[in-house]
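Support request, please re-run this one:
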Amino acid sequence: MRLWSLHPEYLDPKGLVAVWREGLLAKTVLGGKTKGYTNHPQLLRFKNYNNPIKAIDSYLFWIYKEAQKRGYHFNAEKINEELLIAIIPVTTGQLEYEFDHLLKKVYSRNLNFYDRLLDGKNKIVCHPVFYCVEGDVEQWEIKK
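Re-run finished. Output below.
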């Protein structure tokens, strides 16, 4: 499961579809409706928010908005449209790690999108549900 801390605009088409599906799975897990993935490290930051379902719905809302912008048809009925901004901290080190990880993935599947990503490497923007703080890669990250 990868719930990107990066702004959804950085995700290539496959990445955007994948994070939508994985976000919906995360919502199911956070809602206690499945036995799997309950201790997945990617969920810690949502679990630590005072209302995890509201936090993941907001995360998914921003994914949905990016999909709409691209002309994709994600099902908005799967989420409660929550417009929460900057509610969860993410470190600069985490954003850099994820950006490099995403570059490797996109390089192998979409060179045009890869070139576009390289242009934005100087100023990495986080997903709107997060706010950026100085620091290393997050403790919960499983480095590959």
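The longest strand covers residues 88-91. The CA atoms of residues 35 and 144 lie 25 Å apart.
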